[in-house]
Backbone:
Protein backbone atom coordinates (compact mmCIF):
# COMPACT_ATOMS: atom_id res chain seq x y z
CA UNK A 1 0.00 0.00 0.00
CA UNK A 2 1.45 3.36 -1.02
CA UNK A 3 2.31 5.89 1.66
CA UNK A 4 1.03 9.42 1.07
CA UNK A 5 3.37 11.75 3.01
CA UNK A 6 1.19 14.78 2.37
CA UNK A 7 -1.41 13.24 4.67
CA UNK A 8 1.11 13.38 7.52
CA UNK A 9 0.90 17.16 7.45
CA UNK A 10 -2.85 17.30 6.90
CA UNK A 11 -4.14 14.61 9.29
CA UNK A 12 -3.67 13.84 12.95
CA UNK A 13 -2.74 10.43 14.26
CA UNK A 14 -4.23 8.47 17.13
CA UNK A 15 -4.96 10.35 20.36
CA UNK A 16 -1.85 10.13 22.55
CA UNK A 17 -0.76 11.31 25.97
CA UNK A 18 0.28 14.98 25.85
CA UNK A 19 0.49 14.86 22.07
CA UNK A 20 3.48 12.51 22.06
CA UNK A 21 4.09 10.69 18.77
CA UNK A 22 2.44 7.29 18.51
CA UNK A 23 5.37 4.94 18.04
CA UNK A 24 6.94 1.70 19.21
CA UNK A 25 10.43 2.65 18.12
CA UNK A 26 12.32 2.93 21.41
CA UNK A 27 15.69 3.76 19.88
CA UNK A 28 15.56 7.54 20.43
CA UNK A 29 13.21 7.64 23.42
CA UNK A 30 14.14 8.32 27.04
CA UNK A 31 10.56 7.65 28.17
CA UNK A 32 7.60 5.76 26.72
CA UNK A 33 3.90 5.82 27.58
CA UNK A 34 2.06 2.54 28.07
CA UNK A 35 -1.67 2.31 28.76
CA UNK A 36 -2.88 -0.49 31.04
CA UNK A 37 -6.66 -0.65 30.48
CA UNK A 38 -7.31 -3.29 33.12
CA UNK A 39 -9.26 -3.75 36.31
CA UNK A 40 -9.92 -6.95 38.17
CA UNK A 41 -13.68 -6.45 37.96
CA UNK A 42 -14.08 -7.47 41.60
CA UNK A 43 -15.05 -4.16 43.20
CA UNK A 44 -18.49 -4.19 44.81
CA UNK A 45 -19.93 -1.44 42.63
CA UNK A 46 -17.27 0.94 41.18
CA UNK A 47 -15.78 -0.93 38.25
CA UNK A 48 -14.41 1.26 35.46
CA UNK A 49 -10.68 1.93 35.81
CA UNK A 50 -10.15 -0.14 32.66
CA UNK A 51 -11.19 3.01 30.78
CA UNK A 52 -8.63 5.19 32.55
CA UNK A 53 -5.89 5.39 29.88
CA UNK A 54 -8.21 6.65 27.14
CA UNK A 55 -9.70 9.26 29.50
CA UNK A 56 -6.28 10.53 30.58
CA UNK A 57 -5.17 10.84 26.96
CA UNK A 58 -8.33 12.78 26.14
CA UNK A 59 -7.90 15.21 29.02
CA UNK A 60 -4.18 15.59 28.42
CA UNK A 61 -5.05 17.75 25.43
CA UNK A 62 -5.62 20.53 27.99
CA UNK A 63 -2.00 20.36 29.23
CA UNK A 64 0.25 22.87 27.48
CA UNK A 65 3.91 21.96 26.95
CA UNK A 66 5.57 25.01 28.57
CA UNK A 67 5.47 26.24 32.17
CA UNK A 68 7.33 29.58 32.23
CA UNK A 69 7.60 29.52 36.03
CA UNK A 70 8.97 25.99 36.47
CA UNK A 71 9.87 24.35 33.16
CA UNK A 72 10.08 26.72 30.23
CA UNK A 73 10.82 23.90 27.82
CA UNK A 74 8.88 21.05 26.27
CA UNK A 75 9.57 17.96 28.42
CA UNK A 76 7.91 15.62 25.93
CA UNK A 77 10.29 16.71 23.17
CA UNK A 78 13.34 16.70 25.42
CA UNK A 79 12.67 13.13 26.52
CA UNK A 80 11.78 11.94 23.02
CA UNK A 81 8.54 10.76 24.61
CA UNK A 82 6.52 8.28 22.58
CA UNK A 83 3.13 6.70 23.24
CA UNK A 84 3.19 2.96 22.59
CA UNK A 85 -0.56 2.56 22.98
CA UNK A 86 -2.28 0.08 25.29
CA UNK A 87 -1.33 -3.42 26.35
CA UNK A 88 -3.77 -5.99 24.95
CA UNK A 89 -5.66 -7.23 28.01
CA UNK A 90 -9.12 -8.46 28.90
CA UNK A 91 -10.38 -7.04 32.20
CA UNK A 92 -11.02 -9.62 34.94
CA UNK A 93 -8.67 -12.17 33.33
CA UNK A 94 -6.10 -11.37 35.95
CA UNK A 95 -3.22 -13.77 35.38
CA UNK A 96 -3.34 -13.38 31.60
CA UNK A 97 -3.37 -9.60 31.92
CA UNK A 98 -0.51 -9.57 34.42
CA UNK A 99 1.61 -11.69 32.07
CA UNK A 100 0.94 -9.34 29.15
CA UNK A 101 1.65 -6.21 31.20
CA UNK A 102 4.90 -7.65 32.53
CA UNK A 103 6.02 -8.68 29.04
CA UNK A 104 5.32 -5.25 27.55
CA UNK A 105 7.07 -3.53 30.43
CA UNK A 106 10.14 -5.75 30.03
CA UNK A 107 10.51 -4.64 26.41
CA UNK A 108 10.54 -0.97 27.41
CA UNK A 109 12.71 -1.34 30.51
CA UNK A 110 15.27 -3.61 28.84
CA UNK A 111 15.73 -0.93 26.17
CA UNK A 112 16.82 1.51 28.87
CA UNK A 113 13.63 3.54 28.52
CA UNK A 114 11.58 4.83 31.47
CA UNK A 115 8.00 3.51 31.34
CA UNK A 116 5.23 6.04 31.94
CA UNK A 117 2.13 3.99 32.65
CA UNK A 118 -1.55 4.77 33.04
CA UNK A 119 -3.94 2.37 34.76
CA UNK A 120 -6.12 0.64 35.25
CA UNK A 121 -6.78 -0.25 38.87
CA UNK A 122 -3.99 -0.54 41.41
CA UNK A 123 -3.42 -4.23 40.70
CA UNK A 124 -1.43 -3.29 37.57
CA UNK A 125 1.45 -2.14 39.77
CA UNK A 126 2.42 -5.75 40.56
CA UNK A 127 3.34 -6.94 37.04
CA UNK A 128 5.13 -3.64 36.52
CA UNK A 129 7.27 -4.20 39.61
CA UNK A 130 8.05 -7.72 38.41
CA UNK A 131 9.39 -6.36 35.14
CA UNK A 132 11.30 -3.52 36.79
CA UNK A 133 12.87 -5.86 39.33
CA UNK A 134 14.28 -8.01 36.53
CA UNK A 135 16.40 -5.06 35.42
CA UNK A 136 16.92 -2.96 38.53
CA UNK A 137 16.84 -5.49 41.37
CA UNK A 138 15.04 -4.70 44.64
CA UNK A 139 13.09 -1.51 44.11
CA UNK A 140 12.46 1.57 46.19
CA UNK A 141 8.86 2.73 45.80
CA UNK A 142 7.14 5.97 46.63
CA UNK A 143 3.52 4.84 46.86
CA UNK A 144 1.20 7.83 47.16
CA UNK A 145 -2.23 6.45 47.99
CA UNK A 146 -5.02 6.58 50.52
CA UNK A 147 -4.49 2.82 51.00
CA UNK A 148 -1.36 0.73 51.50
CA UNK A 149 -2.62 -2.01 49.13
CA UNK A 150 -0.94 -4.49 51.46
CA UNK A 151 -3.95 -6.53 52.51
CA UNK A 152 -4.01 -10.09 53.71
CA UNK A 153 -5.42 -12.35 51.02
CA UNK A 154 -7.24 -15.66 50.96
CA UNK A 155 -7.06 -18.61 48.58
CA UNK A 156 -8.92 -17.77 45.41
CA UNK A 157 -8.60 -14.02 45.93
CA UNK A 158 -4.84 -13.62 45.89
CA UNK A 159 -4.82 -10.89 43.28
CA UNK A 160 -6.93 -7.77 43.51
CA UNK A 161 -6.44 -4.01 43.74
CA UNK A 162 -5.54 -4.26 47.43
CA UNK A 163 -2.84 -6.93 47.51
CA UNK A 164 -0.16 -5.80 45.06
CA UNK A 165 2.26 -4.65 47.73
CA UNK A 166 1.68 -7.82 49.74
CA UNK A 167 2.90 -9.80 46.74
CA UNK A 168 5.73 -7.35 46.08
CA UNK A 169 7.12 -8.08 49.55
CA UNK A 170 6.52 -11.83 49.39
CA UNK A 171 8.17 -12.04 45.96
CA UNK A 172 11.08 -9.84 47.16
CA UNK A 173 10.57 -7.38 44.31
CA UNK A 174 11.17 -4.43 46.62
CA UNK A 175 13.44 -3.35 49.42
CA UNK A 176 10.72 -2.91 52.09
CA UNK A 177 12.81 -0.46 54.09
CA UNK A 178 12.72 1.82 51.03
CA UNK A 179 9.00 1.51 50.26
CA UNK A 180 7.01 4.49 51.52
CA UNK A 181 3.21 4.43 51.62
CA UNK A 182 2.32 8.11 51.82
CA UNK A 183 -1.05 9.76 52.43
CA UNK A 184 -2.79 6.73 53.90
CA UNK A 185 -6.16 7.45 55.49
CA UNK A 186 -9.74 6.28 55.81
CA UNK A 187 -11.55 3.07 56.62
CA UNK A 188 -10.54 -0.48 55.64
CA UNK A 189 -12.06 -3.96 55.59
CA UNK A 190 -9.34 -5.49 57.79
CA UNK A 191 -8.40 -4.87 61.40
CA UNK A 192 -4.77 -4.25 62.28
CA UNK A 193 -3.86 -3.17 58.77
CA UNK A 194 -0.90 -1.01 59.72
CA UNK A 195 0.56 -3.73 61.93
CA UNK A 196 0.49 -6.16 59.00
CA UNK A 197 2.05 -3.59 56.67
CA UNK A 198 4.87 -2.79 59.05
CA UNK A 199 5.61 -6.48 59.61
CA UNK A 200 6.94 -6.48 56.05
CA UNK A 201 9.24 -3.59 56.93
CA UNK A 202 7.28 -1.04 54.93
CA UNK A 203 7.27 2.63 55.90
CA UNK A 204 3.85 4.22 56.47
CA UNK A 205 3.30 7.97 56.53
CA UNK A 206 -0.37 8.61 57.12
CA UNK A 207 -2.12 11.64 55.74
CA UNK A 208 -2.39 13.03 59.25
CA UNK A 209 1.37 12.70 59.75
CA UNK A 210 2.02 14.21 56.33
CA UNK A 211 -0.04 17.28 57.22
CA UNK A 212 1.42 17.61 60.73
CA UNK A 213 5.02 17.32 59.56
CA UNK A 214 4.54 19.15 56.29
CA UNK A 215 5.31 18.05 52.76
CA UNK A 216 8.81 19.55 52.84
CA UNK A 217 9.79 17.43 55.85
CA UNK A 218 8.54 14.21 54.24
CA UNK A 219 10.33 15.02 50.99
CA UNK A 220 13.53 15.59 52.92
CA UNK A 221 13.15 12.12 54.46
CA UNK A 222 12.54 10.54 51.05
CA UNK A 223 15.63 12.14 49.55
CA UNK A 224 17.79 11.04 52.47
CA UNK A 225 16.55 7.45 52.29
CA UNK A 226 16.20 6.93 48.54
CA UNK A 227 18.84 9.00 46.76
CA UNK A 228 21.00 6.75 44.60
CA UNK A 229 18.46 3.91 44.50
CA UNK A 230 16.13 2.97 41.62
CA UNK A 231 12.81 4.58 42.57
CA UNK A 232 9.35 3.77 41.25
CA UNK A 233 6.70 6.46 41.63
CA UNK A 234 3.35 4.76 42.09
CA UNK A 235 0.61 7.38 42.29
CA UNK A 236 -2.93 6.19 43.00
CA UNK A 237 -5.36 8.97 42.18
CA UNK A 238 -7.46 8.31 45.27
CA UNK A 239 -4.64 9.92 47.23
CA UNK A 240 -6.37 13.13 46.20
CA UNK A 241 -9.49 14.31 47.96
CA UNK A 242 -12.65 13.35 46.03
CA UNK A 243 -13.42 17.06 45.75
CA UNK A 244 -10.72 17.30 43.08
CA UNK A 245 -10.53 13.64 41.97
CA UNK A 246 -13.97 11.99 42.25
CA UNK A 247 -13.41 9.43 39.49
CA UNK A 248 -11.66 6.66 41.41
CA UNK A 249 -12.65 3.20 42.55
CA UNK A 250 -12.41 3.82 46.29
CA UNK A 251 -12.75 7.50 47.21
CA UNK A 252 -11.68 8.55 50.68
CA UNK A 253 -12.52 12.02 51.97
CA UNK A 254 -9.94 14.31 53.53
CA UNK A 255 -7.09 13.81 51.07
CA UNK A 256 -4.56 15.79 49.10
CA UNK A 257 -5.51 18.95 47.31
CA UNK A 258 -4.47 19.22 43.68
CA UNK A 259 -1.72 21.68 44.63
CA UNK A 260 -0.36 19.44 47.39
CA UNK A 261 -0.23 16.37 45.16
CA UNK A 262 1.54 18.20 42.35
CA UNK A 263 3.99 19.74 44.85
CA UNK A 264 4.93 16.26 46.08
CA UNK A 265 5.71 15.12 42.54
CA UNK A 266 7.76 18.26 41.86
CA UNK A 267 9.65 17.64 45.09
CA UNK A 268 10.97 14.30 43.83
CA UNK A 269 13.48 16.05 41.55
CA UNK A 270 16.92 14.62 42.29
CA UNK A 271 15.76 11.03 42.81
CA UNK A 272 16.54 8.27 40.31
CA UNK A 273 13.06 7.64 38.96
CA UNK A 274 13.02 4.49 36.83
CA UNK A 275 9.25 4.28 36.33
CA UNK A 276 6.11 6.37 36.76
CA UNK A 277 2.84 4.53 37.46
CA UNK A 278 -0.37 6.60 37.71
CA UNK A 279 -3.48 4.52 38.21
CA UNK A 280 -7.09 4.23 39.39
CA UNK A 281 -8.78 6.74 37.11
CA UNK A 282 -12.36 5.52 36.66
CA UNK A 283 -14.12 7.67 34.04
CA UNK A 284 -17.52 6.13 34.83
CA UNK A 285 -17.35 7.84 38.23
CA UNK A 286 -15.61 11.03 37.18
CA UNK A 287 -17.16 14.48 36.83
CA UNK A 288 -16.40 16.36 33.61
CA UNK A 289 -13.04 14.61 33.35
CA UNK A 290 -11.64 16.17 36.54
CA UNK A 291 -9.73 13.11 37.72
CA UNK A 292 -8.36 12.27 34.29
CA UNK A 293 -7.28 15.87 33.79
CA UNK A 294 -5.50 15.95 37.14
CA UNK A 295 -3.82 12.62 36.32
CA UNK A 296 -2.51 14.13 33.09
CA UNK A 297 -1.00 17.00 35.07
CA UNK A 298 0.62 14.55 37.51
CA UNK A 299 2.19 12.80 34.52
CA UNK A 300 3.39 16.10 33.06
CA UNK A 301 5.10 17.02 36.33
CA UNK A 302 6.71 13.57 36.48
CA UNK A 303 8.11 14.12 32.98
CA UNK A 304 9.65 17.40 34.16
CA UNK A 305 11.29 15.50 37.04
CA UNK A 306 12.67 13.02 34.52
CA UNK A 307 14.11 15.86 32.45
CA UNK A 308 15.89 17.04 35.59
CA UNK A 309 17.17 13.52 36.22
CA UNK A 310 18.67 13.32 32.72
CA UNK A 311 20.05 16.86 32.76
CA UNK A 312 17.61 17.98 30.07
CA UNK A 313 16.09 20.85 32.02
CA UNK A 314 18.33 23.70 30.91
CA UNK A 315 16.71 26.67 29.20
CA UNK A 316 17.25 27.05 25.47
Residues:
Amino acid sequence: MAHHPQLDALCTGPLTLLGAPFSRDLAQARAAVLGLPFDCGTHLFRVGARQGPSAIREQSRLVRPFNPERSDYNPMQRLGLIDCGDVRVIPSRILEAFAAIEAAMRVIVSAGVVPITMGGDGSVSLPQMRALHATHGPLAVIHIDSHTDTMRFTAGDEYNAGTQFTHAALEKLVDPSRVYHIGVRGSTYQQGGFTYVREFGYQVITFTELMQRGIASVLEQLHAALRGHPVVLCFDMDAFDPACAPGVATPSWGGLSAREGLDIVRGLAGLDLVAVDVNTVSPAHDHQGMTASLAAHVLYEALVVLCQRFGLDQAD
